[in-house]
Amino acid sequence: MRKIFTIFILSVILLSCESKQQVDLIVTNAKVYTVDEGFSIAEAFAVKDGKFEAIGTTSEITSTYEAKETLDADGKTVYPGFIDAHAHFYRLGLQQQMVNLVGTKSYEEVVSRIVEFQQKNNKAFITGGGWDQNDWENKEFPTKDTLDRLFPDTPIALSRIDGHALLVNQVALDKAGITTQTPFEGGDIEQKNGELTGILVDNPMQLIFDAQPKPTEDEMAEALMTAQKMCFEYGLTTVVDAGIDRKVIELMDSLQQHRDFKMRIYAMISNTEENLNYYLDKEPYKTERLNVRSVKFYGDGALGSRGAALKEEYSDRHGHFGALLSPIETFKEVANKVAKSKYQLNTHAIGDSANYVVLKTYDSLLKNDPDRRWRVEHAQIIDEGDFKYFSKNIIPSVQPTHATSDMYWAEDRLGADRLKEGAYAYKKLLDQAGLVALGTDFPVEQVSTFLTFYAAVARKDTENYPEGGFMKEEALSREETLKGMTIWAAYANFEENEKGSIEKGKFADFIMLDKDIMEVEENEIPSLKVLETYLGGEKVF
After folding, report:
1. Is the pTM above the cut of 0.85?
2. Exposed (0-12), middle (13-18) or buried (19+): which is 50, by Cβ within 10 Å?
3. Are the CB atoms for 445 and 403 separated by under 8 Å?
4. Which end of the chain is more exposed for a tag (fewer CB within 10 A), N or C?
5. Strand partners, 377
6. Residue pLDDT, tens place only, 394-452
7. Rounded to whole angstroms, how far apart are CA atoms 239 and 440?
């Protein structure tokens, strides 16, 4: 009798095991912010073939599924993989191969870093970036004199932090054929007392770029792999690369198919005649890791370099309004071309004048086309009467750390009234559009997703300044911020059905943090750590 009973129990156990569904990974004992429609919190989930198979309690998942690998989260919090809705992924990687000027507190420190870099690298053409004269005691643009003296035979080109101004020496100017008589539109070739200062703003910068040696394919591949590593460490599983050429896109595709390049990329193709002619007549190109279906257009420059196009003059420079980088008719022609294609148009617009032109053009073209999801990148300074144009079809794509980086000097540029009326107005944009897509704009800002989150909810720097928060009425809630970094960013990419939340059938892109970003003390947010990053159910960090 005992033998029969034992056989019966064994049979039940075997049948029970056989009845469980086989999956690749089970995560248990977690606090899972699913970011689904109800913003529900789960405890466990199963992953199969790179996608979420089921979400529920630990008991429900373990009684139904059996996995090759089980991860006990031990109460840690899990979130969908973060999506950076606006960054410069390829440029971030390239910048690691150049002299790093981020955080310099004076022009003297800039020069010191260049000298140290060149002693180690002996470059034939020195490039670098990250300087910001607004962080220096002397807030005027630097001049090339010191560089001319120290490097009389080696060309130098150094990008301002926002990528909208260059400091170059005389050798670089000569190499690019730039003189005091060089014609230009949309930007500036700065002169003082009839002589070049070495500062170029916006469009004329291209003359220098054309004269620089191009990176080799190996250097390009190294840049992509370096940027991927940096992004995985901050929980990013999808990055929107805002403005890249066909050559970079095709290299990304090749590396994703044949090498260990795993990052999911939403590519905005740069607005060049060559790119538009190649892509717009074709269907958007889509794989599980690469989505090429948008065009990036630059409307104006940046506020820090006074290149943003304003309706009224700059408060700190009489008679200066900034500038559109292309004639209005050129922008409208491109917008019409994109409207006739299946591609999305995403336009950089900082100043209220640039935003007005972009919003009016979008509105006229999209009235009878309700699901094009064209984006305004930055949407930084908006006239009060122009907020009405934003919607789920004209999407604000903003970068919260721009507010906390610019807050020290933004009032100097705009004046108090214009600043309060519609600058860095993320909450007002959200209320009007119903969503905001959040990004960093790295390497203009730091890669850190936690600084993005902190700037959105606290509107402070990491020194707790200002005490009450910068224009705190425009702060986002933690739930809104998490959505802006996940499901809303996915929506802005036409990818909300495949990523942005932890739901059955979506890519199993998720991260685990050391503390709960939704509940931790506000001042702890910048120092949070990603413990693990998973892409398609595979641990990548």
Report:
1. yes
2. middle
3. no
4. N
5. 348, 397
6. 999 999 999 999 999 999 999 999 999 999 999 999 999 999 999 999 999 999 999 99
7. 10
